[in-house]
Amino acid sequence: MNIIVSNSSDVPLYMQIKEQIKDAVLKGELADGELLPSIRTFANDIRVSVLTIRRVYEELEKEGFAVTQAGRGTFVTMGNLELLRESKRRVIEQDLQSAVHNARLFEIAKDELHAMLDILYEEE
């Protein structure tokens, strides 16, 4: 898992880390049941406070992306599949919203945008 944090970002460190972990789960880079690094190891690896990582893990657990088992660690969980599906949809909607904004900006008609999407979808 490759986590990159920026001290110059307006986004708090814990949110940067949490969102990158969620993205890794949603993209399948982290599998259901996979053990996340220990709080201390993770904090040392990315050079942040153990309190920051504890907060990340607590928030991931509240959002249904992780479960902590006393004495064993924190594991990725996909117990709430509908939440995961909704998160995936939200990522796509954000990208599409940006595409629609740019299409309007460049005066590209809706049907032309649909045609572009159809072509791109078929290429993959």
**Total beta strand runs:** 2
The Cα radius of gyration reads 18 Å
Strand and helix order: HHHEEHH
| Gap between N and C termini | 25 Å
Oligomeric state: single chain
So how many helices? 5
CATH fourth-tier homologous superfamily of the largest domain: Winged helix-like DNA-binding domain superfamily/Winged helix DNA-binding domain
Give the neighbour order of strands across the main sheet: 1-2
Query: Percent of residues in helical segments?
Result: 55-70%
Query: What's the structural domain tally?
Result: 2
Mean pLDDT: 91
Question: Could you explain how this protein is built, in words?
Answer:
The chain has 124 residues and is mainly alpha-helical. It has two domains: 13-76, Winged helix-like DNA-binding domain superfamily/Winged helix DNA-binding domain (Arc Repressor Mutant, subunit A), CATH 1.10.10; 81-123. The protein has five helices and two strands, in the order H-H-H-E-E-H-H. A two-stranded antiparallel sheet has the order 1-2. Strand 1 (66-69) and strand 2 form a beta hairpin. The longest helix has 25 residues, at 81-105.
